[in-house]
Amino acid sequence: MRSVLPQLKLVALTSLVLAFAVPADADEVPFACTILPGEELASIAMTNPLAGDASCIVTCKFATTKYDNNPQITCAKPIPAGKEVEMCLLTSGGDRLVKVTEGHAECGR
Q: At 107, is the secondary structure helix, strand, or coil?
């Protein structure tokens, strides 16, 4: 019979490393995924909450009127400390954007 103990140690170590990779006191990053008038274009904006310049990334996902058409966009760029910027625009591809279904943003140095 083969022992699975070495595999269990690897899994535990991997989980431990991941726990340290994400800071527990990470700042909340304000962002907005906004459907613009006409409902075929969305604006993705965010604010760098850090005390210094940072590299920031935001992802927004939308529902449309078309079945199984859920456009998603991820934008990344450097943002000065405390500044709010428009990260990017997303077109719906001709379908009407209905609502924001998911969103996430983070900044790091």
A: strand
Question: What is the distance between the alpha carbons of residues 6 and 28, in angstroms, rounded to a whole number?
Answer: 38
d(CA 57, CA 48): 10
| Distance from chain centroid for Cα 71 | 14
CATH assignment, 25-108: 2.60.40
**Blockwise average pLDDT, block size 10, the chain, 109 residues:** 42 31 57 96 96 96 93 96 95 92 94
Q: Is the Cα torsion angle 12, 24, 83, 33 positive or negative in sign?
A: positive
Q: Which residue has the tokens 């535990």?
A: 12
Q: Give the predicted TM-score (pTM) of the model.
A: 0.71
pLDDT in the model for residue 21? 32
For residue 44, which of 54, 28, 29, 58 has the smallest C-alpha distance? 58
